[in-house]
Amino acid sequence: MTNGAAESTGSTVSFPYKLVATDLDGTLLRSDETVSERTREALAAVTAAGAAHIVVTGRAVPWTRHILDDLGYEGLAVCGQGAQVYDAGEHRLLTAVTLDRQLAGLALAKIEAEVGPLLLAASRAGLDGEILVGPGYRMMGGSLAVVPIKDAADLWSAPLNKLYIQHPTLSADELAEAATRVAGGLVGVMMAGADIVELLPLGLSKATGLSIAARRLGMKAADTIAFGDMPNDIPMFGWAAHGVAMANAHDDLKAIADEVTSSNDEDGIAVVLERLLG
């Protein structure tokens, strides 16, 4: 697999970007949470041509680290929707942003006053921050470690990266719209998956985290091609020189993408990288 840091190998293969930024779920990862051999080879070819690869994911480090370790990935990763820049090779956090719990509580109260009681979960800050899941919250997939709690007050007992909210009947799109309308001046509201709406520190996005990571590598937005599938990738596409949406992407992301590739299960990243490698 690739490192995040570019390496010179004397290869004569050219690649038009210095930085490749890839989302994880629905993008780099197939539906079974693996990375295909074709995609691994395409990324290896890109780094051999002198580019860097950075994983940019909504997952916090504890939900990302095992994937990076399995891939042999030793570069930088942007985790937690931009809240964390993580050095995978050294297993340490380089930057971290936490959610103001008082503002988040006020935002939550405003949202619930608008749409009724919500189902809640939270991501605790730090390298080993637990994911706390309140009563009724619907988890996607069963492979991620969580800590069930009975009392929602326990969500606030330690510093957080973000708060997850769900509604019993509203879709994620509907909930995100309502949350943005009534609380968007207090917190960031991001739709990160089919049933995943998050409350984040105001102004935080994948773009802010990626810009920090890129700067550490001496690279700029103009050097970057980015791949994603959900509305939380919109800021990253706005920052990067070229944004590529997967065929399985949310319509809002496709609408602003520079191009649409094959799905995550059909090696969509590799399709584009192979073309650009010539």
Low-confidence stretches: 5-11
Assembly category: single chain
Describe the strand arrangement of the main beta sheet, using strand numbers: 5-4-3-2-1-12-13-14
Radius of gyration from the alpha-carbon trace, in angstroms: 18 Å
The backbone outline, from C-alpha atoms, is globular
- What series of H and E elements makes up the topology? EHHEHEEEHEEEEHEEHEHEHEH
What is the structure about, briefly put?
The chain has 278 residues and is an alpha/beta fold. It is globular and about 60 Å long.
Structure in words:
This protein is an alpha/beta fold. It contains 9 helices and 14 strands. The strands form 2 sheets. It has an 8-stranded mixed β-sheet with strand order 5-4-3-2-1-12-13-14, sandwiched between helices. It has a 6-stranded mixed β-sheet with strand order 8-7-6-9-11-10, with helices on one face. A hairpin with a 6-residue loop joins strand 6 (119-124) and strand 7. Helix 2 runs parallel beside helix 9 and helix 4 crosses helix 5 (172-183). The longest helix is centred in the middle third of the chain and has 15 residues, at 101-115. The radius of gyration is 18 Å and the shape is globular.
SSE diagram, text form:
Elements: E1 19-22, H1 24-28, H2 37-48, E2 52-56, H3 61-71, E3 76-79, E4 84-87, E5 92-96, H4 101-115, E6 119-124, E7 131-133, E8 147-148, E9 160-166, H5 172-183, E10 188-193, E11 196-200, H6 206-216, E12 224-228, H7 234-239, E13 242-245, H8 251-256, E14 259-260, H9 268-277
Helix pairs in contact: 2-9, 4-5
